[in-house]
UniProtKB/TrEMBL annotation:
Localization in the cell: Cytoplasm
Keywords of this entry: Cytoplasm, Disulfide bond, Phosphoprotein
Taxonomic path: Eukaryota, Metazoa, Chordata, Craniata, Vertebrata
Pfam families, sorted: I-set (PF07679)
Domain Ig-like: 18-101
Alphabetized SUPFAM superfamilies for the sequence: Immunoglobulin
Top-level taxon of origin: Eukaryota
GO cellular component terms, semicolon-separated: cytoplasm
Keyword presence, Glycosyltransferase: no
Protein's UniProt name: OBSCN protein
Length: 101
């Protein structure tokens, strides 16, 4: 706001977060039953945007079977003690970008 006493004008500032892209894609992982499977990808920058991991079409969350880590621009998914039922596509989505393995 700029107010000179008898005149006033206003403006608005809008700050948008730059688009985040995946600069290091997921790689396929082969593990033995009972071992951990680790998937990693790297983003163009740190982000506050929602990022989501999927096993098939099922969204994953950190719990006793899955560990999701965010360290700067690195996003990591650890599937603990995998079983044959864990076989399938893993994907990571952020904004409009997806990487799959």
């Amino acid at each position: 706001v700029c107010d000179t006493g008898d005149q006033q004008t206003t403006a608005t500032v809008l700050v948008k977060e730059p688009e985040v892209i995946i600069v290091e894609a997921l790689k396929d992982v082969t593990s033995y039953e009972g071992e951990d499977a680790v998937f990693e990808c790297r983003l163009s920058r740190e982000t506050t945007q929602d990022a989501q991991w999927f096993l098939g079409d099922v969204p994953l969350q950190s719990n006793e079977m899955n560990e999701i880590r965010v360290e700067g621009t690195r996003q990591t998914l650890i599937l603990r003690k995998v079983t044959l039922e864990d076989c399938g596509p893993i994907s990571f989505k952020v904004g409009q970008h997806t990487s799959a393995a």
